[in-house]
Amino acid sequence: MDLRVGVIGTGAIGEDHIRRLTHTVTGANVVALSDINVQNARRIADKYGAKFYATGEEVIAAPEVDAIVIASWDPTHAHYVLAGIKAGKFVFCEKPLATSANDCKNIVEAEIAGGKQLVQVGFMRRFDRGYRQIKAAIDSGRIGEVLMLHCMHRNRVPGPKHTTEMSIKNSVIHEIDVLRWLLGEDYKTAQVLLPKSSRLAEDGLRDPQIVLLETQSGVRIDVESFINCQYGYDVQCEVVGETGTVRLPDPANMEVRSGGAFSYEIFPDWSDRFIEAYDTEFREWVDATKRGIVAGPSAWDGYVACVTADACTEARETGAIVPIAIPRRPAFYKK
Ligand code: NAD
Ligand code: ISE
Q1: Which part of the chain is the Gfo/Idh/MocA-like oxidoreductase C-terminal domain (predicted)?
Q2: Which atom of ligand 2 is nearest to the CA of 159?
Q3: 155 C-beta closer than 6 A to ligand 2
Q4: What is the DSSP letter of 329?
Q5: Is the minimum distance from the CB of 57 to ligand 1 under 6 angstroms?
């Protein structure tokens, strides 16, 4: 039987996930949805044959809904995740799990109190072919012990109302999660450097920012966050080991030799750049949910990412090197 999914938030990625669950992933069906933008949500409900509900709470309570996808704005996530846990339903929550470590802690505690893991966080880079190749290379020992990572996370333009704080809590949170997953260890310290700001960064936004992380074993990481780079969506990651390096491949695109130049297209945003990763993420989520388990990034991973992002925020505000205190992982969450 198909997994019957209810979606909260039908903006850019919400609609894309509805399309993906309807046309790309087998074994699932979007039966209910809600968004405060009622007109757009009703249009999407009609298009995909789902029932429109006036509130997210009604989607969660709907008897025909087995599992919830949350793709509304970041500050709304914690409330809906807690409601999903209370209803005993599986929840896929787009990143970040919440906008503060404290809200994530409440989610972790509620999930443990309920006695069953239900929550997966939308850290889709763990499902990307390139990052998976890098993980396999590191785990095989092919480049020796990892010493350093150089990363770049550039967006062509920021989304509406993007703030200096969001560059880390909404954007670099992807690196925070995927690098921790690649290395299999937590972070120890954070520092944030603020270079000269782009004149194209509006409303006092500090952009770019450089995030420096140190892991517990001493691996050093630099992440350039540039949300206003203008030319395209560009994510890079180079891992430097004792005996070699590995680098994230760009997505396969047609190569053009023309007019005395060699080029290939850089995608404008995340939706095409990581399309295969989102598809794999949802295939694996539907499969695991139907088996009654959470197999992807957990509420604990969402919590650790927010603890780290909060430390980065403090580091940016104070200019200090901030220690990152990751709580001990409860046995409830397997490694
Ligand atoms: P968006 O603004 O296009 O869509 C968000 C939608 O949420 C809007 O339609 C808005 O009306 C709705 N909404 C806001 N408050 C709501 C509420 N209380 N109840 C129901 N709906 C509500 O934004 P987006 O780009 O689609 O991002 C949505 C979420 O997905 C964000 O949390 C973002 O961080 C995440 N995201 C993840 C990725 C990724 O790569 N994994 C990419 C983009 C966005
Ligand atoms: C967006 O919400 C995403 O998650 C994208 O993957 C990221 O690149 C972008 O910076 C975020 O705003």
Answers
A1: 135-323
A2: 12
A3: yes
A4: P
A5: no
CA distances (Å), 160 to each of 154, 165, 166, 202, in order? 16, 14, 11, 11
- The CB of 240 under 6 Å from ligand 1? The reply is no
Contact indicator for 47, 17 with CB cutoff of 8 Å? no
**Cα 259 to middle of ligand 2, angstroms:** 34
pLDDT in tens, 103-132: 999 999 999 999 999 999 999 999 999 999
**Residues facing 298 on adjacent strands:** 120
Q: What pLDDT, on a 0 to 100 scale, did the predictor assign at position 116?
A: 98
Cα distances (Å, whole numbers) of residue 75 to 102, 218, 255, 302: 13, 33, 41, 14
Backbone phi, psi, residue 211, to 5°: -100, 125
For the chain, list the domains and their CATH numbers.
Answer: 3-124+277-297 (3.40.50.720), 126-270+304-323 (3.30.360.10)
Q: The tokens of 82 are what? A: 């807690």
At residue 20, the 3 state secondary structure works out as helix
CB 227 within 8 A of CB 167: yes
Parallel, antiparallel or unpaired: strands 220-226 and 119-121? unpaired
The C-alpha atoms of residue 57 and residue 76 are separated, in whole angstroms, by: 12
Tokens 């949500």 belong to which residue? 41
* Closest listed residue to residue 309, CA positions, set 296, 328, 295, 326: 326
How far is it, in rounded angstroms, from Cα 122 to Cα 315? 25
**Mean of the per-residue pLDDT values of the chain:** 97
pLDDT score of 335 more than 90: no
